[in-house]
Design brief:
Blueprint: H1 3-10, E1 30-34, E2 37-40, E3 45-48, H2 51-54, H3 63-76, H4 87-99, E4 106-110, H5 113-130, E5 138-142, H6 151-155, E6 173-176, H7 190-208, E7 213-218, H8 234-244, E8 248-252, H9 267-271, E9 277-280, E10 292-296, H10 298-302, H11 324-339, H12 342-358, E11 366-372, E12 375-380, H13 388-408, E13 411-412, E14 414-416, E15 419-422, H14 430-450
Parallel strand pairs: 3-13, 5-6, 5-7, 7-8, 8-9
Antiparallel strand pairs: 1-2, 2-3, 4-10, 9-10, 11-12, 12-15, 14-15
Helix pairs in contact: 3-11, 4-11, 7-8, 12-14, 13-14
Length: 456
Amino acid sequence: MSDREQFNRHLVHPWADLPSLGEDETTPVVVRGEGVYIYDEDGHRMIDGPAGMWCMQTGYGRREIADAVAEQIMDLGYSSAFSVINQRETELAARIAAATPGDLNRIFFTTGGSTAVDSALRLCQLANNIKGAPRRKHILTRDRAYHGSTFLAASVTGKERDKTAMDLLQGHVHFLTAPCRYAFPQELDENEFCDFLVRELEDKILELGPENVMCFIAEPVLGSGGVIVPPADYNRRCWEVVKKYGIVYIADEVVTAFGRLGHWFASEAVYGVVPDIITFAKGLTSGYVPMGGFAVSDRFMAEITGDAAGGNIYSNGYTWSAHPVSCAAALASWDIIEREGLLQHVREVGPYFQSRLRSLADSPLVADVRGTGLMAAVEMRLDTSARGAELLAQDYALGELVDHYCHRFGLLVRPLINVCIMSPPLIITREQIDDMVSALRQALALAEADCAGGLG
C-alpha cells in the first residue's frame, strides 16, 4: 500500500475537510528536505514557502541540531519538570529571558503554541482569583486572529470563514475589528483607521467595565489570519490603552519571534511594546521538535507568589514541559541563528522579499499583497459578482488552483482559502526569493487562463 493510500485509509490531518476525508489525490508526499527546499516522493524539488508552518528558521538538514538532539537523547532522553530540573531547560530559559523586553524573566515551557496560549490564559485567570478579582474574566481579541486549536486558544481565535461546528468558550470572549486596511470598507486613511481601532478597543473596555476585563491578546502581525500588518502605531497605542486600565497585555509571538521579523522578539524591538506576557513556539526549535512556552514579567509574578500567593499553586503543566531534547534542539538552533547572523540577514533581505512580491500586483488575480520581514500574503480574487457561499466556493477553488500550479513550478505555498501565505526559512537568499516570485507569477498566469470562464 502506498503512502497516499495509507494516508487516505488511516490519517486525519489538522483542518481535515470532512466531506472528502479519505479521498486526497493532490497533497504532496514529501520525503526529505535540504536548506530551503523539500522533495516529494518523485524527487520533485520545491522551495518551502511557508517554512513548514512558520517554523523552519534555519532550514532543513541541520547537522548541528541533529547532533545536539542525538547527544541529549543519549545523555538524558527525558526528565519530568514536575519533579526534577534539567540543565538544558535552565540554559534555554536564561537565554530567552535575556532576549525578552522589560522584566519578562520568568519562563514556562509547553508543547507548542496552542498550549502556550492556553497556559498563559489560565495563569491570568489564576492571578485574578488570587488577587481577589474573580470578576476579571473577559478576554479581548480580534477578528482574524489565530491563537491555537486547544479549547481556550481556539476560543480566542477569530479566524474567519472556517467551516466548523466545534464548540468554543462563550460569553467572555470579545472580538474587535481586525486591523486589516484592505478589508475595511470605509474610506479612511491609515491614521484614521488606526484611530478607529484604538477607539473601538477603549470603548469595549469601558462597555464591559475595566474591572471585568482580564486581558487583551494580540499577535503583533496576524499570521494565519492572512498576514495582517496593522497600522504603524496600532500595537503601541493598544498597549497604552490596555495599561491605562490595568489590563494584562499578552503578545502572541508564536509566529513573529525567533527571527521572523529580524529580532528574537518583535514586541519592543519593532513595535515599542513591553507586554506582560509573551507566548512563543514554532521557530524556537527551528521546527525540528515540538516546543513552546511563555515569558511573564517579574512584576506580574510578584503579585501572586510568596506571601501573596495565598497558598495556591499553578496547577498547569504537560508531560513534555521543558523536555531536555526539545531544549537541546532550541539551543542548537539559537547558536546557528547567532553564528550565521540570521537576524541581521532577515533585516537586510526582508525588504527585498516584500518588494519582489509586490511586483505581482499587476496580475489580474491579485487583490492585495502585504507583509513585513519574512512573512507575506498574496490575496487573490476573481472579478465576480458572487457573494456568500458562492464566493467562498470560488475563493477555495482559486486558492487550490494556484497552489496546484505552484507545485509544478517548484514552490510550496500555504493556501488559506484564497490567500497564498509565505514565510520562508530565514536562510533564504535573494536568488531564491526571485525563484519563489517567478514560480508564483507563472502559477498565477496559468490560473488566470483557467479562470477565463469563471470558477464554480
